[in-house]
Amino acid sequence: MALPSLRVRAHGAVEIMDSPFCDPAMLTRTYQDFRVVNALVSGWWGIYRRSIRPDLSTTTEMTLLDVGSGGGDVSRALARWAMRDGLRLAVTGIDPDARAHVFATSQPKIAGLSFRRALSSDLVAEGARFDFVVSNHVLHHLSVAELKGLLVDSEDLVRRRVLHADLERSNHAYLGFAAATTPFFRHSYIRPDGLTSIRRSYTATELRAVVPAGWTVSRGLPSRLVLGWTPPDA
Ligand SMILES: C[S@@+](CC[C@H](N)C(=O)[O-])C[C@H]1O[C@@H](n2cnc3c(N)ncnc32)[C@H](O)[C@@H]1O
């Protein structure tokens, strides 16, 4: 397989699942497969343990907003982990895409978990606030202007901590994902869209250069970035 140049962000590259005309059955399997891919590579168990769980309580309910929740598996995992730990966490997943909303709401119900078809800016307009604002694999989807808009929305929406997790672009990430997925995911868009996502994603240096002061970028494995912000008065 030819390795495309990953020197600069391929911000014009389009993921198949973003097309309104993509195959509905392939798209449903893509949402299903995200559960496996996110569990293997997205690192949310570690983020939950280090940066969310320590603030949760058995008595006082905390709230968490998952922006761009897609098929909803990260929202579901966070709600399930908190419940298993006996901690009170209400999770809201939002996504403007009707197809994602239909898939997310068709899955088995979990206490304290809900999904809405909405943009982060809609919640800002409502004056909503959450203890945590998180996202997974959303940053690379956005133009730089949209990214800055999401960060302004996140600052408006959060009380305690923002955590936006994404891929980090590198030859290593591209070749590793290509090799690991070669025999799998033939009936979904996971492999082609995953490779496009890596081409669209930021390096840590690039992300640090575009985010406002006060935001931090930390690197993790495998090829992960977490963009974080804590309100000064938190
Ligand atoms: C690649 S998907 C990630 C889905 C899911 N978080 C996951 O990890 O499987 C990115 C999603 O972000 C949504 N999105 C983009 N901008 C958004 C915004 N400002 N507010 C809410 N959702 C947004 C898109 O509709 C898309 O479904």
UniProtKB/TrEMBL annotation:
<feature type="domain" description="Methyltransferase">
    <location>
        <begin position="65"/>
        <end position="152"/>
    </location>
</feature>
<dbReference type="InterPro" id="IPR029063">
    <property type="entry name" value="SAM-dependent_MTases_sf"/>
</dbReference>
<dbReference type="GO" id="GO:0008168">
    <property type="term" value="F:methyltransferase activity"/>
</dbReference>
<keyword id="KW-0489">Methyltransferase</keyword>
<dbReference type="Pfam" id="PF13649">
    <property type="entry name" value="Methyltransf_25"/>
</dbReference>
<dbReference type="GO" id="GO:0032259">
    <property type="term" value="P:methylation"/>
</dbReference>
<protein>
    <submittedName>
        <fullName>Methyltransferase domain-containing protein</fullName>
    </submittedName>
</protein>
<keyword id="KW-0808">Transferase</keyword>
<dbReference type="InterPro" id="IPR041698">
    <property type="entry name" value="Methyltransf_25"/>
</dbReference>
<keyword id="KW-0949">S-adenosyl-L-methionine</keyword>
